[in-house]
Amino acid sequence: MHYEGNIIRPPSEANSILLQVTVGCSRNKCTFCGTYTGERFRIKSDAVIMEDIAFAAKYCKRQRRVFLCDGDVMILPQKRLLNILNEIKKQLPWVTRVGVYANAKSLKIKSIDELKELKEHGIGIAYMGLETGDDVTLKNINKGASAETMIQMGRKAKAAGIKLSITVLLGIAGRERSQIHAKETGRVLSAIDPDYVGALSLMLIPGTPIHQDYQEGKFILIEPDEMLKELRTMISHTALSDGLFHANHASNYLPIAARFPKEKKETLQLIDEAISGRVALKPEWLRAL
Fold it and tell me: CA-CA distance, 197 to 188, in Å (whole number)?
């Protein structure tokens, strides 16, 4: 495989074939992310991509899923993306699902018919970073989209039949807007009604704008108990028709994996026990990105 730079993938794609189609991220301006710092976004050549698919056909016969890296493969021109999907289907007939990262910009570029076409050619899930439903915080972190746009694009992906997994960030609003962020994020998640929600806890990365603000006292990173209270508020304001809410990422203090709405009540009770000290939190040295 011809991997370049940092390769990232969602936790649920740990056992997938990682096929790098792009290098970097088409946005690459979010204040909290240092993954692609200094990396100019580009699409890899078709020759290299096809060579990697051929490699997977020979050496990756046990994997049943493919994840297209890096930051935003959905932004590829439709014809090029379809060619890649067709080649995957041709050379890897045992693959049951292809996953991609997507953002509001790339979903806006694609028509609903184009998204349906991508679904028909193998894309089964899209991972979208919402981070927060609070417009003030979205602007502060330079996300490049409003909450309403996030709602529209999330609904668009679901309308095309593509499963949607949304990531949110605990602590991203700082202390002053913590509860506003939690409530608004719950509102936006409810409006989109994704199949999966993954809540991560903010970990400050040296060299990022938000880390610099933290060092200068312009951003306050909330404490573990405040993270839990934020999570509780977020969950209490989130209504999913039939979705999985995960907060079991390595960055989180309290692992949670619950199906909503069935397990929502007991999840809130678990958080209450953790806030009161009856359930132990993950020690700081065990947390990681």
Answer: 12
* CATH level 3 topology of 11-286: TIM Barrel (3.20.20)
Question: Distance between CA atoms of 109 and 75, rounded to whole angstroms?
Answer: 8
32 with 137: CB under 8 angstroms?
no
Give the predicted TM-score (pTM) of the model.
Answer: 0.94
Closest C-alpha among 107, 234, 227 to residue 164: 107
pLDDT digits (tens, 9 = 90+) for 79-119: 999 999 999 999 999 999 999 999 999 999 999 999 999 99
β-bridge partners, 180: none
- Region of poorest pLDDT, from 37-41, 75-79, 175-179, 187-191: 37-41
Token code pair at residue 9? 């993938």
Q: Copy the structure tokens of residue 54.
A: 């051929």
Place of tokens 């991609």: 100
Return the closest-CA partner of residue 129 out of 176, 189, 171.
189
